[in-house]
């Protein structure tokens, strides 16, 4: 077992070259994934599109944009992220975000932000819809059967018929099931309100120290992948612990947190990817703590199980002819 | 100087034009297919790449339509990825004004424009009825007339957002009440190119008022000329010149070594496009009722079409037959006169390729269309994914260049410049 490494990018550049340079550095260093921060009203490009823009120019690194469930259409989220998975050949993820800010609501014309509990419940419904839509095509739905003239077997496409408090969605998706089946769903979680409520595969948590990290790991169900967020070279106090020091000291910190707490990996919030690929990554590799994964999909890199389609008939359920 | 021809490449879509049964047909969803066609179009110095959109899978007789290609990527996401593998090609996507919101979509289009260096285009469509609405929060909330009110105000709103240069805005109109900071600085084109594809009076008026180009379905030369005049005559009252709105019909073509060879190929493709099952389904789209009991190799039904436009048998596709009874009578007369089966008739009357012949003949005809104001260019719809435009780029483009009606190099850096709209 080695530690998994991700970087969180929070840039506001509209220059494609900037993003290509940053994500290529991560790709070449063998990092597991990059997250792209976003929120409505910020100065900066749409994160899903930034991920799509760099996808054809990178090969290994996972691409995990933030996309907001408040005010948006779960159907569009699902098809956009499925498409990101297609254009990246199985490297897509999604960092779920809710919006509590009335100023963001005003941008979209929805004027009354709901209480946080409701927004989280709505996010939970959105994840459910997005996931069902990803599964709404079975992997072998496209049959191209010339004899019967049929391109698809429509019995292998499924209405999702979701009805919840905030929206209802019929389905199926307009996009065939993406390469990973289920792209990786992640969320930043400051407490059980999030990690107990959202059906994510990965949680970004914000421990203050190694013991705190251990406590958090103990409270989250073991199937989840847990990444500790660390702000590297930051001077502004935020939600995550801040590190300032040499690459060797950062490697020491990662080594001790990882050993003590059992987190799966670290998401380093950096200003520039080079801040960690030049010093930290070679140091962790030298210590045998980090080893770039040979897997091609993000699910595989993270050690997530193959995503079984909730709608596909299990072998034992297929009636005998 | 003769008019210069605009050329665009339509990624083969979810109707029976696309022949998936051909052994050469590639994936409709792998990025490789999109990349291949986009690179081909750029090799041919095309103005733009074009994607259609449908926000729900089509249904016929209440079942998901299974005879044509089904499924495609999200428009904005795949276009943004294509910006990575092309340099000059415009990236045009169909996006529905009914099921998007201005702030979010304007931001996405601005992002595409920035990340592509000024190559974004938006084909504004409304949507067929409440059918799509079942996939969205708002449901089927607008009728036909209101959809164009919304589309018009949507475009006006988006342009204000683009003009805000990332700054503060406050917009109140009959459809939208929004305010805040846009967050995207002015993009290379200022305003991404706007195309419009509605054909009703409301759709044409919207185009005359707001759009840079029309994706039209008028391709018979006389009909195309009438449409061209009709729309261009609407421009003056908005203070616009005729060359500020480009008319670009979607057209198909077949090339051959001789004209006879091309005709033969065209017929072969038509038979691939219209299987017996597809023939019945296409007939149902006019008759608007279940004809599954009819034999495709037999005669046309003698019952009349069902005239219920609120409950059409096909859902998720724009209406194609304004006068069902008249069209049905024409089809019957033609089938009787030539003793055609349902399938033979459908092969003749639907979707026949628009330009068939040697490369020289096709180049000549395309040029005639443009020089005689039947249109300003073409969105080429090929029947094969992804290599369907290879022959056009290799054979027809050089002839258009020889005629002096098509560029020999990209002159502008943005799509707007290449279209002559800067
Ligand atoms: C050539 C052409 C292409 C179209 N492509 C699409 C499309 O890709 N997606 C879509 O939802 N609607 C599409 N439409 C439908 C139009 O946007 C519009 O909703 C429809 O034509 C009804 O409006 P109308 O009555 O003004 O024609 C298309 C229409 C035409 C004429």
Task: Write structural notes for this entry.
The complex is a heterodimer of chains A (321) and B (422). With 321 residues, chain A is α/β, with parallel strands linked by helices. Chain A has one domain: Alpha-Beta Barrel (TIM Barrel), CATH 3.20.20. Chain A is 33% helix and 18% strand. Chain A has eleven helices and 13 strands. Chain A has helices at 16-28, 47-54, 74-87, 102-108, 116-135, 192-195, 210-219, 247-261, 274-277, 280-286, 298-302; strands spanning 4-9, 33-36, 62-68, 93-97, 142-145, 150-152, 162-163, 168-169, 184-188, 202-205, 225-232, 241-243, 265-269. The longest helix of chain A has 20 residues, at 116-135. The radius of gyration of chain A is 20 Å and the shape is globular. The N and C termini of chain A lie far apart (46 Å). With 422 residues, chain B is α/β, with parallel strands linked by helices. In chain B, 37% of the residues lie in helices and 15% in strands. Chain B has helices at 31-43, 75-82, 102-115, 144-163, 201-210, 221-233, 259-273, 276-287, 324-338, 342-349, 359-371, 390-402, 415-418; strands at residues 6-10, 48-51, 59-60, 63-64, 90-96, 120-125, 168-172, 177-181, 193-196, 213-216, 246-251, 253-255, 314-315, 355-357, 377-381. Chain B starts with 5 loop residues before the first strand and ends with a helix. The mean pLDDT of chain B is 95. Chains A and B meet through helix 2, helix 3, helix 4, strand 6 and strand 8 of A and strand 4, helix 2, helix 3, strand 8 and helix 8 of B. The structure holds flavin mononucleotide.
């Amino acid at each position: 077992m080695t530690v998994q490494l991700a970087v969180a990018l929070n840039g506001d550049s509209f220059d494609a070259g900037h993003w290509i340079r940053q994500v290529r550095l991560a790709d070449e260093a063998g990092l597991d994934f990059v997250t792209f921060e976003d929120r409505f009203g910020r100065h900066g490009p749409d994160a899903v599109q930034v991920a799509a823009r760099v996808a054809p120019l990178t090969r290994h690194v996972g691409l995990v944009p933030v996309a907001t469930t408040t005010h948006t259409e779960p159907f569009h989220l699902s098809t956009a992220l499925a498409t990101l998975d297609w254009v990246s050949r199985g490297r897509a993820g999604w960092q779920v975000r809710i919006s509590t800010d009335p100023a963001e609501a005003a941008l979209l014309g929805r004027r009354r932000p709901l209480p946080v509990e409701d927004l989280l419940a709505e996010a939970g419904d959105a994840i459910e819809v997005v996931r069902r839509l990803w599964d709404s095509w079975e992997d072998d739905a496209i049959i191209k059967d010339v004899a019967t003239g049929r391109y698809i077997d429509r019995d292998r496409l499924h209405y999702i018929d979701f009805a919840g408090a905030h929206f209802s969605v019929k389905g199926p998706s307009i996009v065939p099931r993406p390469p990973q089946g289920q792209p990786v769903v992640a969320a930043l979680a400051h407490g059980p309100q999030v990690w107990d409520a959202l059906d994510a595969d990965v949680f970004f948590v914000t421990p203050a120290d190694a013991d705190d990290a251990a406590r958090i790991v103990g409270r989250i169900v073991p199937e989840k992948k847990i990444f500790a967020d660390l702000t590297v070279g930051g001077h502004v106090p935020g939600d995550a612990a801040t590190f300032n020091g040499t690459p060797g000291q950062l490697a020491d910190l990662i080594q001790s947190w990882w050993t003590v707490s059992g987190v799966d990996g670290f998401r380093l919030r950096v200003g520039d990817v080079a801040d960690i690929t030049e010093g930290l990554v070679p140091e962790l590799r030298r210590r045998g703590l980090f080893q770039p994964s040979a897997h091609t999909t993000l699910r595989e890199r993270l050690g997530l199980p193959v995503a079984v389609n909730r709608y596909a008939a299990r072998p034992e359920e297929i009636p005998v002819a | 100087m003769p008019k210069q021809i605009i050329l665009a490449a339509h990624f083969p879509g979810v109707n029976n034009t696309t022949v998936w049964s051909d052994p050469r047909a590639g994936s409709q969803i792998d990025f490789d297919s999109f990349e291949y066609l986009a690179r081909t179009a750029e090799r041919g110095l095309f103005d733009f790449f074009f994607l259609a959109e449908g926000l729900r899978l089509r249904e016929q007789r209440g079942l998901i339509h299974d005879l044509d290609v089904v499924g495609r990527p999200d428009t904005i996401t795949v276009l943004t990825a294509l910006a990575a593998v092309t340099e000059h090609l415009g990236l045009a996507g169909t996006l529905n004004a009914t099921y998007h919101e201005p702030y979010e979509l304007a931001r996405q289009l601005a992002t595409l424009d920035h990340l592509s260096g000024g190559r974004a285009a938006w084909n504004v469509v409304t949507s067929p009825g409440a059918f799509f609405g079942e996939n969205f929060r708002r449901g089927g909330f607008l009728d036909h007339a209101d959809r164009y009110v919304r589309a018009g105000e949507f475009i006006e709103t988006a342009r204000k957002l683009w003009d805000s240069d990332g700054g503060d805005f406050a917009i109140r109109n009959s459809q939208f009440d929004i305010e805040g900071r846009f967050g995207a600085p002015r993009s290379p084109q200022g305003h991404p190119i706007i195309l419009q594809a509605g054909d009703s009076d409301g759709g044409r008026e919207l185009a005359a008022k707001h759009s840079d180009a029309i994706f039209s379905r008028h391709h018979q030369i006389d009909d195309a000329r009438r449409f061209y005049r009709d729309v261009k005559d609407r421009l003056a009252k908005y203070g616009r010149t005729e060359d500020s709105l480009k008319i670009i019909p979607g057209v198909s073509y077949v090339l051959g070594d001789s004209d006879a060879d091309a005709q033969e190929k065209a017929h072969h493709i038509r038979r691939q496009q219209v299987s017996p099952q597809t023939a019945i389904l296409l007939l149902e789209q006019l008759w608007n009722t279940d004809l599954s009991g009819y034999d495709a190799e037999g005669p046309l039904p003698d019952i009349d079409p069902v005239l219920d436009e609120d409950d059409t048998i096909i859902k998720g596709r724009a209406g194609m037959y304004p006068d069902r009874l008249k069209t049905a009578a024409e089809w019957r007369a033609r089938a009787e006169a030539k003793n055609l089966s349902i399938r033979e008739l459908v092969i003749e009357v639907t979707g026949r390729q628009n330009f068939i012949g040697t490369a020289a003949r096709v180049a000549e005809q395309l040029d005639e269309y443009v020089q005689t104001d039947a249109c300003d260019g073409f969105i080429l719809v090929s029947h094969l994914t992804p290599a369907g435009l290879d022959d056009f780029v290799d054979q027809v483009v050089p002839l258009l260049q020889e005629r002096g009606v098509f560029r020999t190099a990209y002159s502008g850096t943005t799509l707007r410049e290449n279209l002559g709209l800067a």
